[in-house]
């Protein structure tokens, strides 16, 4: 008499083991599939005893080895259990149940944290995390008019880069696919050292370079390696909020915003000595001023005397439109106390997430080791492709082409502001560099609310006031021009004009 199990299998898909083409079926796999289906649908109940292998063999007309292999496979997957001398049984707990998350009940909602609460939803975050989240500035949209700091990623030479990348992948060696501890691909370090010496006046050897996943990781590594709890760190005020956030997420640090004057970051010779001084001397972010040579030398002298380190963020200095790029501060003196930081985010595309540091010789070994311990470096294939892009001249060619393109777009945006607003809305003097302009606004304007209004109309910008740490905040908008073609810039600008008119600004 056939068992219920055999009957179910015959009625639910078990057929002659030869298909239309006459080839043999994978009998074991087919039997496993049907048994899983029976167990998952409840046709075979938890704890139910299955037929002995000999009985199932005879009922289906297959070999006993096929049945034994199917039972063994399902035991390993957790569908079956076996007891010596007792037989094979359906497992009490169905493995499929563990692979499915419970559906939320209709109408239920995840609780949202209220401002001032200690939790974020149902999670309790650290005080530092809550402080940063309460004033988070990273925009949800990172592309379009007039998002600052974003290059035209559509102009990236993808075909050239893809050919290089594909060729490297075809011949990738094991050491290219595992963790690294040497601070990045040597080929990229060699090419970057040559490029930085020529293009930026940086004094460095390849071994001084450390490849990072962008500027934020470079700042995080620097703070963790050099700053103790309670130490002071200077940064420009206004300055890049991203650097401030990274610094504040580390140990208890006294982050001091130093105001700017016409020559750059101002020194406080009587105040507390900082451990780090973070600056953007070649093109101050966000105001665009250039630190004077006298101020650079004064800052270097101060750092040497006080035993401080200068972090030079050279984020977009390749894009200067009226003269040659201004040399980096790092190269002004031999063995300068400067940690030079750069990135490919502005020259190629932000999603690449490759940056670099040029370290003073005394910091090379410890910070390279710290980097390996904290971040488990990788992306060697990407770094090798970048090295070839630089070595074969594609990188320099791309920068030259984009410099012309961005310069033209900058002039067009300036002309729109001067024509439809007035020259007084532009900051002076004009640095003729970078990827954004600062649109000045009257002090009564809430530039944060203005940005929110613009976003509802499909126009992106950043409020200038969010870059200040002090209470004295200039109002304005950062308008990026790199990622928008001239043909569509005017229509987006007219949207901006309409919104400005609604808040009382005459156009």
As a whole number of angstroms, the C-alpha radius of gyration is 32 Å
Distance between the termini: 94 Å
CATH topology of the largest domain: Aspartate Aminotransferase, domain 2
Return the CATH architecture of the largest domain: 3-Layer(aba) Sandwich
- Can you give the helix content as a percent range? 25-40%
Instruction: Give the count of helical stretches.
Output: 16
Low-confidence stretches: 19-24, 112-118
Order of neighbouring strands in the sheet with most strands? 5-12-11-10-9-6-7-8
Net shape: elongated
SSE-based structural type: alpha/beta
| Largest sheet descriptor | 8 strands, mixed
Number of strands: 15
CATH superfamily of the largest domain: Type I PLP-dependent aspartate aminotransferase-like (Major domain)
CATH C-level of the largest domain: Alpha Beta
The whole-number mean of residue pLDDT values reads 88
The proportion of residues in beta strands is 5-15%
Number of domains: 3
What features would you describe in this structure?
In the C-terminal section; belongs to the class-I pyridoxal-phosphate-dependent aminotransferase family. InterPro entries: Aminotransferase_I/II_large, HTH_trans_reg/aminotransferase, PyrdxlP-dep_Trfase, PyrdxlP-dep_Trfase_major, Tscrpt_reg_HTH_GntR, WH-like_DNA-bd_sf, WH_DNA-bd_sf. This is PLP-dependent aminotransferase family protein. Residues 25-93 form the HTH gntR-type domain. This protein starts with a helix and ends in a 5-residue tail after the last helix. The protein has helices at 4-11, 27-41, 53-60, 64-77, 95-98, 127-134, 158-170, 186-199, 215-226, 241-248, 293-306, 361-375, 380-391, 394-420, 447-456, 486-502; strands at residues 80-83, 87-90, 119-120, 123-124, 209-212, 232-237, 254-261, 264-265, 276-279, 309-313, 338-343, 355-358, 436-440, 462-463, 476-480. The chain folds into 3 domains: 4-99, Orthogonal Bundle (Arc Repressor Mutant, subunit A); 156-396, Aspartate Aminotransferase, domain 2 (3-Layer(aba) Sandwich), CATH 3.40.640; 398-503, Aspartate Aminotransferase, domain 1. Residues 19-24 and 112-118 have low confidence and may be disordered. With 507 residues, the chain is an alpha/beta fold. The chain has an 8-stranded mixed β-sheet, sandwiched between helices.
């Amino acid at each position: 008499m056939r068992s219920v199990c055999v009957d179910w299998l015959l009625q639910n898909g078990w057929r002659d083991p030869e298909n239309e083409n006459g080839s043999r079926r994978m009998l074991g796999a087919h039997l496993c599939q049907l048994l899983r289906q029976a167990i998952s649908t409840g046709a075979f109940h938890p704890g139910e005893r299955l037929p002995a292998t000999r009985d199932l063999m005879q009922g289906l007309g297959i070999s006993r080895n096929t049945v034994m292999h199917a039972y063994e496979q399902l035991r390993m997957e957790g569908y079956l259990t076996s007891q010596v001398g007792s037989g094979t049984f359906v497992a009490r707990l169905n493995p499929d149940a563990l692979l499915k998350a419970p559906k939320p009940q209709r109408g239920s909602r995840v609780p949202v944290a209220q401002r001032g609460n200690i939790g974020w939803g149902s999670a309790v975050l650290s005080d530092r995390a809550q402080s940063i989240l309460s004033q988070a500035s990273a925009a949800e949209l990172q592309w379009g008019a007039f998002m600052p700091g974003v290059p035209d990623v559509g102009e990236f030479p993808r075909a050239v880069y893809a050919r290089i990348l594909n060729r490297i992948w075809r011949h990738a060696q094991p050491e290219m696919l595992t963790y690294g501890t040497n601070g990045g691909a040597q080929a990229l370090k060699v090419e970057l050292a040559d490029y930085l010496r020529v293009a930026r006046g940086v004094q460095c050897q390849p071994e001084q370079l450390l490849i990072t996943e962008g500027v934020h990781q470079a700042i995080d590594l620097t703070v963790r390696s050099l700053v103790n709890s309670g130490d002071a760190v200077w940064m420009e005020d206004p300055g890049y909020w991203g650097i401030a956030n990274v610094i504040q997420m580390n140990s208890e640090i006294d982050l001091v915003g130093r105001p700017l004057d016409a020559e750059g970051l101002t020194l406080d010779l009587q105040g507390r000595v900082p451990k780090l001084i973070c600056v953007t001397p070649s093109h101050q972010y966000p105001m665009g001023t250039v630190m004077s040579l006298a101020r650079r030398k004064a800052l270097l002298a101060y750092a040497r005397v006080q035993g401080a380190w200068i972090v030079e963020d050279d984020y977009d200095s390749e894009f200067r439109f009226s003269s040659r790029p201004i040399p980096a501060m790092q190269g002004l003196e031999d063995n300068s106390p400067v940690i030079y930081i750069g990135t490919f985010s502005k020259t190629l595309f932000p999603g690449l997430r490759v940056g670099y540091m040029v370290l003073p010789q005394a910091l090379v070994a410890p910070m390279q080791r710290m980097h390996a311990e904290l971040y488990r470096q990788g992306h060697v294939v990407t770094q090798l492709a970048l090295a070839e892009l630089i070595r074969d001249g594609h990188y320099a060619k791309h920068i030259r082409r984009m410099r012309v393109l961005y310069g033209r777009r900058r002039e067009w945006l300036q002309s729109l502001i001067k024509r439809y607003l007035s020259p007084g809305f532009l900051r002076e003097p004009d640095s003729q560099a970078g990827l954004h302009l600062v649109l000045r606004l009257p002090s009564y304007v809430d530039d944060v609310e203005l940005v929110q209004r613009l976003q509802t109309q499909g126009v992106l910008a950043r409020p200038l006031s969010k870059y200040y740490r002090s209470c004295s905040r200039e109002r304005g908008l950062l308008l990026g021009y790199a990622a928008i073609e001239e043909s569509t810039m005017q229509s987006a600008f007219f949207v901006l004009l309409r919104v400005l008119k609604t808040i009382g600004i005459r156009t």
